[in-house]
Amino acid sequence: MLPEVMKLSIVIPVFNSEKTLAPLVARLQGCLSGDAFEIVLVNDGSRDRSEAVCMDMAHRYANVQFIGLRRNFGEFNAVLCGLNYVSGQYIVIIDDDFQNPPEAILTLVDAADAGGYDVVYSRYARKQHAWFRNAGSRLLNRLATHLIGKPDELYLSSFKLIRYEVVQEIIRYTGPYPYIDGLIFRATRNVGSVEVPHHPRQEGQSNYTLKKLISLFLNVLIGYSVWPLRVFTLVGAGLFLLGILVGFGLLISSAAGWFSVRGWYIVAWAVFLLAGLQLLFLGMLSEYLGKLFMMQSGLPPYVVKHEMVRKSSVGSRQ
């Protein structure tokens, strides 16, 4: 029988949020005061004073833990790091920019209790993001439907609740390219969603640049499915069959004297067609081989620089 544990663990990946972090932690302390909870701050190589603010929060509040990473590894890597330090029955991941109101955490908890879900995603009536990020999110959600078996109507938001038992499956991943939603759907399909408010960003600009969105797209496309290889295999088989049929057609047409077929036309057509097909295959295979090389190279998903944690809570339910 498991020992008594706290209700909630709040994981906050921190990046350049020195102005919003202290108000966010203070507001969490107020709106969640009715439950036993902890806050896990993971500083993902911020370039401002976020690390100093995190340390101050860990000193000020007994239920705040702080882990500082040596450089910027990315949001999913920081979240994965934080998930290794939680002990609550429910783990909620929330951003550091106040776009998700802390009070909405209780909405996620109520939905999990009522529906018995392993994971509860937030959804928004209207998202307060830039247009290119909204477009990127729609593309990634459509891609995830085909690659990881996500229900088509489910929106994969960063603000979500995960049961402790599912988190224990997620943190088994040790590679350098974690995709939290992909790891969730490898562990469970018992997933729900609930609508919550989404507010404009209070300070600064989104850290999701076009470059990061493209990197995330490639990570999801190649790192969590062999579906692209299967598509190109079918395309290659189709083009090969088409080439055979066209070749027979040219041969028959030439023999019957229907029209004159110049040899260099055929050679040029075959060279361009096969060269393009080969380049597509080589490009896709190189992406897979590159991922495999990086995963086998022993690169960790994150490197911890500082820790201010309660040692008794780490892995206390394992």
From TrEMBL:
CDD domains: DPM1_like_bac. The chain crosses the membrane at residues 234-258, 264-285. SUPFAM superfamilies: Nucleotide-diphospho-sugar transferases. Residues 9-170 form the Glycosyltransferase 2-like domain. It holds the Pfam family Glycos_transf_2. The keyword Cell membrane applies. This is Glycosyltransferase family 2 protein. InterPro entries: Glyco_trans_2-like, Glycosyltransferase_2, Nucleotide-diphossugar_trans. Gene3D superfamilies: Spore Coat Polysaccharide Biosynthesis Protein SpsA, Chain A. Keywords: Cell membrane, Glycosyltransferase, Lipopolysaccharide biosynthesis, Membrane, Transferase, Transmembrane, Transmembrane helix. The keyword Membrane applies.
